[in-house]
Structures are given as C-alpha cells and as structure tokens.
Design goal:
- With 377 residues, the protein is of the alpha/beta class.
- It folds into two domains: 3-146, Rossmann fold (3-Layer(aba) Sandwich), CATH 3.40.50; 157-373, Rossmann fold (3-Layer(aba) Sandwich).
- Helices cover 50% and strands 12% of the residues.
- It is built from 16 helices and eight strands.
- The protein has helices at residues 3-9, 11-22, 36-41, 59-62, 68-79, 95-107, 127-146, 152-174, 185-195, 200-215, 237-244, 258-261, 271-281, 295-305, 320-335, 351-365, and strands at 26-29, 45-48, 87-91, 112-116, 224-230, 247-253, 310-316, 339-345.
- The strands form two sheets. The chain has a four-stranded parallel β-sheet with strand order 2-1-3-4, sandwiched between helices.
- The structure holds iron/sulfur cluster.
- The site of iron/sulfur cluster (SF4) has 13 residues, from α5, α6 and α15.
- Iron/sulfur cluster is lined by residues 67, 69-70, 94, 96-97, 231-232, 316, 319-322.
Length: 377
C-alpha cells in the first residue's frame, strides 16, 4: 500500500490531524465541479465527502430513492465520521448531491454552508460571467466566515498547488498507456481519491515520491486492458475485482477520475475568471455534457490513447445522469465494435455476481487478442 492509499483508508484521522496541526477549517464538498482553489486560497481545506459502506438506520427515511453514494454521505455525518467538518458546500450538479447537502443541514444545522451555482449549460455565452460572479460571491462569503478574504496572491498559490496536483496525477495516468503498465488500476484510483480528501500541497510531495518509485518498477505482466465508465465511485473495489480476474483497468471516464484531473487553470489577470473557466471547460460529467456533446468523442479518444481492449460501464442504481447518458455510450461502443459489459451497482459489490459479468467480458475479448499471444498486429 502506498502512502496515499493509506491516507485514503484513514481519511478521517488524516483530516482531524490536519486540523490539529494547522488550526485551519475544513469544508466538505460533494461534487467535482466545486472550485476547490477558492476555498484553499482562504486557508480552508476542501475535503471531498466520499461514501464508505457502513450500517445505516437513517437514510431510508430521509433519502429514499437516492443513489447509494449520496445516502451514505448523509449517513456518515449522522454517525459522526465527519465530526471535524466545519462546513459543507454544494454546487449545481446532480440533484441527489443537493439532497445529501440539504438533508445533512437538517441533521447538522450548526454547519456553515454555501451553494455555488455552476451553470448546467456550460457552453452558453453568459455562463462564464455567471460562474465568475458566483466565485466572487463565494470568495466574499469565505471572507466573512474566516475573517480573511482571499486575495490575488492567495489565489495564485492555490492555482499553482492544484495545477501541480493535476499534472502529477496525469503523469500517473500516462504510465498506464503502455503494455505492462507499472501501476494497477486500483492503486491509481486510490491515489486520485486520496488527493480529493487531503491537503494538495502534502499530496504533491507524496505524489512526487510515488512517481519516482513507480517509474522504476519492473513492468507488470501484460493483460486485458479495460476502461471504466459510469457513475462516480468512492473506492477501488471494482478495480480490485478486475485485477483478481487477471485484467487491469487502465483508464476511466469517471467524474472522480479523469473528470477530476484533466485540464488545468490557465493563469490570467482575472484569477476568478481563470478558475471558473477551468470548471466550465473541464471534461464534463454526464449531467453537464448537454449542448455540444463532447463526451462521446472523449470516451473514444481515451479508448484509443490508452489502448483499452474493452469497457465496463458501472452505473449506480438510481443514478439518473448516467441512466440517461448510457444509451449514447452503448451506441458509440457498438458502432466501433468495442466489447462492453454494463451493470448496476448498489451499496456493496458482491464478488461472485460482479466477477461473473466481468469474466464473461474478458472471455469475449481474449480470443481476438493477438497481443497477449506475443503476436503484433
Ligand atoms: S451523478 Fe449519479 S452517482 Fe453521482 S450523485 Fe448523482 S445519482 Fe449519485
């Protein structure tokens, strides 16, 4: 287990320790459209609220019909797992994220809270100005809360730290483009998730170390290379099942994967506009890819660039953004003769049931592969 994986596993302990060390405040957020840079510039640590399966006696009553990940976000607040969070913030995104935010505030009214409207029509002419004005309001609200409104120098520092983090994570993803990639899909996903729950400056130091170590590893045995598409995930359980079957997830189209690490903030004098543009132009989720439909082309480019032999589509039960976008993904994959397996996931991933479908996919792919028989096409 690398150090970042260990932090992900013990993320609540890490956050409590960070608070003790720095005396800073912690702000929980739900969605990758949250412009973390602005909060970080104010000296606040943004921590992504991630589901983690545990006993749940509450959410059936309060969030019936919501996807499991969001229900568990509320559950963890009710259990006290996030007792270190000083506030929570929601952005305009999936309605179940908003429901988790709203319901958590009913349970925990003492939390500071804010809502950032990130335009759904990211391509609209007015969206950039709307986004900028939302960030300006958020900056002022943070100033009232913490006593110090972040200025240009603070924003520059945050932009540098966040861009560096995305660049390092992209380097890790680049290593997975080659046969015999030195890093498994589960280790890569754990690492990306760890960066979402910790101080990015600290994460960057650990990432530098990890990259150096990873790049000197011997190549892994070549195997079936898979792409993972679908609803956001909160652990690498699925990647581990794939690995137990002798295959590897080498690339994803997930909000918490490539959706988090692709595209940097391009610096400009108007820092808030620069940050806003990054979130309006990043690879869009199934929910926000709604005007120019860039997602199909992007998925195809990922398949080609990372040489994926097949695709797993994993959708959370009750995930409406991916439920409605899945037809487009199916059409794309069928048109291009890419083998795929679709399934719905719920609270846990039962091994036998999940492995059976993936094994069938691997068995469909393998006979057509010359690479694994040592023959170049
Ligand atoms: S996008 Fe899907 S998985 Fe994510 S919160 Fe919304 S419904 Fe749940």
């Amino acid at each position: 287990m690398n150090k970042l994986q260990d932090i992900l596993e013990h993320r609540h302990e890490y956050a409590r320790d960070w608070k003790k060390r720095t005396g800073g405040r912690i702000l929980g957020f739900y969605d990758v459209y949250f412009p973390e840079e602005v909060a970080y510039a104010a000296g606040v640590l943004p921590v992504r609220i991630l589901a983690k399966h545990s006993e749940d006696f509450l959410t059936d009553r309060l969030m019936y019909g919501n996807c499991y990940c969001t229900r568990d976000m509320l559950n963890q607040f009710a259990r006290g797992d996030y007792d270190y969070a000083d506030g929570i913030v929601s952005v305009e995104s999936c309605q179940w994220h908003y429901n988790a935010f709203d319901t958590t505030l009913i349970e925990k009214p003492e939390l500071w809270s804010h809502y950032v409207f990130t335009p759904d029509y990211t391509d609209a002419r007015t969206s950039k100005n709307v986004m900028r004005s939302e960030l300006d309001l958020f900056r002022r609200k943070l100033g009232e809360w913490t006593g110090k409104e972040p200025g240009d120098e603070d924003l520059d520092r945050a932009i540098d730290v966040y861009n560096r983090n995305r660049q390092l994570l992209r380097r890790l993803y680049e290593l997975r483009k080659f046969d015999g990639t030195p890093i498994s899909g589960s280790e890569a996903m754990d690492t990306v998730l760890a960066c979402q729950v910790m101080d990015k400056a600290e994460a960057n130091e650990l990432l530098e170390e990890l990259l150096e170590e990873t790049e000197s590893r011997p190549p892994r045995e070549d195997c079936v290379r898979l792409m993972l598409i679908g609803s956001e995930t909160y652990d690498a359980a699925l990647e581990r099942i794939v690995e137990s079957l002798g295959a590897n997830v080498v690339i994803d189209d997930l909000d918490n994967g490539t959706g988090y690490i692709m595209r940097d903030v391009t610096p400009q004098r108007d820092r808030l506009m620069a940050i806003g543009m990054r979130y309006l132009l990043k690879p869009h989720s199934a929910l926000k890819d709604n005007v120019w439909r860039r997602r199909p082309q992007r998925i195809w480019e990922f398949i080609e660039d990372w040489q994926a032999d097949g695709v797993i589509i994993a959708k959370q039960i009750y995930c409406h953004p991916h439920g409605s976008d899945m037809y487009m993904v199916w059409n794309l994959l069928r048109e291009r003769n890419v083998a795929f397996h679709t399934f719905e996931r719920d609270t846990t991933l039962p091994y036998e049931e999940t492995a059976l479908g993936i094994e069938a996919l691997i068995n469909i792919i393998k006979p057509g592969m010359t690479r694994l028989r040592g023959q170049e096409v």
